[in-house]
Amino acid sequence: MEVLGIDPVAIQLGPLAIRWYGIIIASGILIGYLIAQRTAKKVGIKEESLIDLIIWCVVMAIICARIYYVAFEWDYYSQHLAEIPLIMNGGIAIHGGLIGAFLTGFIICRKKNLSFFQMVDIVAPSIILAQAIGRWGNFMNQEAHGGPVSRSFLENLHIPEFIINHMQIDGIYYQPTFLYESIWNIIGFVILLLIRPQLKIGETFFAYLIYYSIGRFYIEGLRTDSLMLTEHLRIAQVISIVIIVVSIACIIYRRVRYNPKKFRDVKGYYHN
Question: Engineered SS bond to 61: which of 22, 101, 214, 235, CB 3.0-4.6 Å?
């Protein structure tokens, strides 16, 4: 693949290449953690409770995101086993990462007697912001883009020149779907911060899942590198629909069954 515009390698130390992809994703995780830590402090959650949770969730998210991607691309990776650990070149699936992170978080919260829904409410805005930042790693790798378009199409979007230039791959310009999702997620970050105080415990988490899934469903339809369930069915779109339905059902069920407190009314550790 001919790379135009920006070199995806940030630093070359002999045979070791440090790519922008990894730097950007790590930056997103760090910024997300700092924001979540500030919220936890306001709520009255000890710093060590959040640190332990995030460290394990991030590790398992990366592992599961890669496993998820490799599983659906097994025809290729079965013939290139040595490439399976090489995540620096891209190839991690957000849905796989979310599944791994939330399952890990649930287990840790149970062991430490923490409220899973309180903790995910604290980190939900940070997650969607980290996703928004992480999409720029896809941009640097020239991946997660849409179909071919003209340069004039990109110019009419009024986006910076460096984005237009880097969306030219092997002489063809492509839809910057990474940018669409990044902007959608940044807006979601702001919305979640604004509505979280009014929502009941657990509902910020479900609002995040619903909001992200709506955007992902439509943006996924523009991409050309989607993981496919069948010849015409995109895995991410199917999962997005399932997440939306299940999240709405969970909100209704929890309101009827538990009637949890509002996020703003809880100080300290929540147990219900």
Answer: 101
